[in-house]
Amino acid sequence: MVKENDAKGEERPEEDYKSKYLYLLAEVENYRKTQERELAEQYKNANERLIVDMLKVLDDFESVLKNDNDEKVLTLSKSLKLVLSLYGLEKMEVIGKEYSPQLAEAILTEKVDDKSGKIVEELQAGYILNGKIIRYPKVKISI
Prior knowledge:
Elements: H1 13-44, H2 48-67, H3 71-86, E1 89-91, E2 105-110, E3 119-124, E4 127-129, E5 132-135, E6 138-142
Parallel strand pairs: 2-6
Antiparallel strand pairs: 1-4, 3-6, 4-5
Helix pairs in contact: 2-3
């Protein structure tokens, strides 16, 4: 028969090994969960650099469409937007919203009496990738 405590009330070595084992088992489990979370985050943002570079192409499409509503260019632009949205890209909608430096970069101002502090024009679109802002919109705000 094994006693848990000796006559002086101190733990026996068997109990010390058991508590160390349980502690290490918990540490290994925590490490495994941390690694899984980090790997999931890396996978989610793996294409970020590529998508940021593709935004330049999307801007070029938008620029061409402002000057000429060519059906072929419009179709290509829609296709590119669809593919990028499949990877988690969303365009930020900021026109008419209250200006905040955490959401947009103010480039120009315009004096408007009834809309003070609001975003009145978007000069360059901003985008969110999987909940993270990857490019802040450049905007004109009213003062």
